[in-house]
Amino acid sequence: MPKEIAARVERAIGEHVFPGCVIGVVHTDGSQEIMPFGKLTYESDSVKVARDTVYDMASVTKSIPVASLVLSLIAERKLELSDTVRQYLPELQNDHGATIEDLLTYRVQGPRLAELRYKTFEQIRTHILERGFSGPPGKRIYTNLPAYLLGLVVERVGGGILPALAESYFFEPLDMPDTTFFPHDISRIAPTEIVDGVEIRGIVHDESARVFSQVRRAVGHAGLFSTAPDMLNFLEALLRGKLSTVFEGAQRGLGWQTAQPDFMSSSASADAFGKTGFTGTSVLVDSSKDMGFVILSNCTYPQRAQDAGTTTSATQVFRADIANILLH
Question: Taking the model in full, what pTM does it have?
Answer without folding.
Answer: 0.97
